[in-house]
Amino acid sequence: MRIAIQGEPGAFSHEATLALIPNAVIEPCSVSADVFRALAEGSVDAAMIPIENSLAGSVLEHFDLLLSHDVRVVRESLLRIRHNLIAIPGAAVGDLERVYSHPVALAQCRRFLGAHPDLRALAFYDTAGSVKHIVETNDSHAGAIAGEAAAHYYGAEVLQSEIEDNAENYTRFFLVRRTADAETDPDANKISLAFSVENRPGSLVAALDRLSAMGTNLTKIESRPVQGKPWEYVFYVDCQLQSPEEGSRALEVLRPQCAMVKELGRYREAGKAGTRD
Q: Exposure check for the chain: N or C terminus, fewer CB within 10 A?
């Protein structure tokens, strides 16, 4: 199964993919739009995208891409994010003058960086990409913050493990397929929806009241502006399902209240993965 990810091999999306589908063939893409383009064109079978981090919040671009493409979420996974200080073989912590990583990763390691004031933090496009960079340049004075898998992939060394500020650091991922290829899991107990309402008082409350009246447990709501229509929004919601039929009923009760409703996918709710006893 060929699966597209955003980022370099060894990134957390790579790790999340192999945790879910161990024999997957990874197709790295530079940007998220390329991930969805590869999926739409059929050059890959699926895509693995991060949708939300427990500390940093939602990946807003991915909501927009899910809405604008003919795709469905078929699986959900949670990955425990462990950040590590990584350097080329033979380098020591005291040798490092700079450390590269994605801005979100740097923000999640403030305590470590504060304890090493001589270590200059530099934003990079990707966690695994930062490891690739220091290995390719063979720079013994540069480190990277990334997952352990990136160190193994590029032949680097972990100098200090689990340097993140908060151990409760999880990223939720979606496995996405083209709608024509997606099969609904008969054990699905969660649904993701997108809808818009008319710009009039009480329209959003009315839509949410319909879901509440069903006894549906709303676990997430996110709003995104509609391009070209100032002050109009698309709302993204996740709901827990007591039965597969409840997802269909949720769509039915929303449609009379909404200008647009789209099902993004039905899937099994993920448990925490990547934990160690």
A: C
pLDDT at residue 185 in the model: 87
Of these residues, 17, 63, 127, 171, which one is catalytic? 171
pTM assigned to the model: 0.90
Q: Is 195 a catalytic residue?
A: no
pLDDT at 123: 96
d(CA 215, CA 234) in angstroms, rounded, equals 23
* pLDDT tens per residue, range 149-163: 999 999 999 999 999
Select which of 36, 124, 173, 195 is catalytic.
173
Question: Could you tell me where the beta strands, DSSP code E, fall in the chain?
Answer: 2-6, 25-29, 46-53, 57-58, 71-80, 84-87, 98-101, 120-123, 142-146, 157-160, 170-178, 190-196, 217-225, 233-240, 260-267, 272-273
Phi, psi angles (nearest 5°) of residue 46: -160, 170
Any catalytic annotation for residue 36? no
The CATH number of domain 2-80+170-272, selected from 3.40.50.150, 3.40.190.10, 3.30.70.100, 3.40.50.970? 3.40.190.10
2-80+170-272 against 84-160: fold identical: yes
User: 84-160 sits in which CATH class?
Assistant: alpha beta
pLDDT of residue 274 exceeding 90, the answer is no
